[in-house]
Amino acid sequence: MNVWVLNAILIEAMALAGIIGVALTRRTKAAFAAGFNTMLLVTVVYVATAPSLGARQVLVLVMVVVYLVHMNWLLFFQSQHTAMAKLDAHSSLFEKYAMTFLLTNGVGWGYCLPFYFATRRNSPLNALDGIATFIYLIGTVIHWGSDYQKQRFKARPDSKGKLLTVGFWRWCRHPNYFGDFLIYVSFALISGSLWGWVAPVLNFLQYRFDAIPKNERWAAEHYGAQWEMYRRRVKMFIPFIY
């Protein structure tokens, strides 16, 4: 079966599963679980249909598995510390259905696009792969580390009503998003193709024009003057720059 047809079947099957999950639970967790885990199915298809199975194909698969371990940990064990609870409260059922469809297709076709080109590269691992792996590791440390710091902070009894401004969170207001963005930059690099940059561009646009504005609006409502001082002092997305 053609790789694109197979992926289309898998992506829309995951979209349907996510929509059923939302219908049963009325929660956005099902939408995010279906969306992000679509990445593993699509990557496996790209690896399985690659001209050959080499170190690069294995590296891509390992990157995806490690990334999804963290995302599923957030979804199923730390969702109370994410924006999902706010989305549940502020989104209609139709919006949750639409979110499921957009997530599965955005991840399956856009976020996974670098993996198609990466798995088609048959040359031995080179400096580009080394740079991609290095950036991936930095992004993973920031992504995991900032989420872990947030979880530890929220678990403290004296943190109620207080804003996390230390650790990675003193670098920028959304270090977890920045770490995630670096991971997608690494995916683009390992793809060896300009088309691979579709993924980090989509990732940046989603954060800059959707996730970050929503989170900043909620933070301003919840923390008031604390948030305003923090916002003036600390950059939004890229540490010390933007």
Please identify the structural class as seen in this structure: mainly alpha
What is the count of β-strands? 0
Helix content: over 70%
- Oligomeric category: single chain
What's the alpha carbon Rg, rounded to whole Å? 18 Å
- The average pLDDT value, as a whole number, equals 95
General description of the model:
The structure is a single chain. About 75% of the residues lie in helices and about 0% in strands. The mean pLDDT is about 95. It has helices at about 5-25, 30-50, 55-75, 85-90, 95-110, 115-120, 125-155, 175-190, 200-225, 225-235. It has one domain (about 5-235). α1 (about 5-25) runs antiparallel to α2 (about 30-50), α2 packs parallel to α5 (about 95-110) and α6 (about 115-120) runs parallel beside α8. The termini are far apart. The longest helix is centred in the middle third of the chain and has 29 residues, at about 125-155. It has about 240 residues and is an all-alpha fold. It is built from ten helices and no strands.
Key phrases:
mainly alpha; 74% helix; 10 helices; 242 residues; globular
In short:
This protein has 242 residues and is mostly helical. 74% of the residues lie in helices and 0% in strands.
Helices and strands in order:
Blueprint (H helix, E strand, L loop, with lengths): L2 H23 L3 H20 L6 H23 L6 H7 L2 H19 L1 H7 L7 H29 L19 H17 L6 H26 L1 H9 L9
Helix pairs in contact: 1-2, 1-5, 2-3, 2-5, 3-7, 6-8, 7-8, 8-9, 9-10
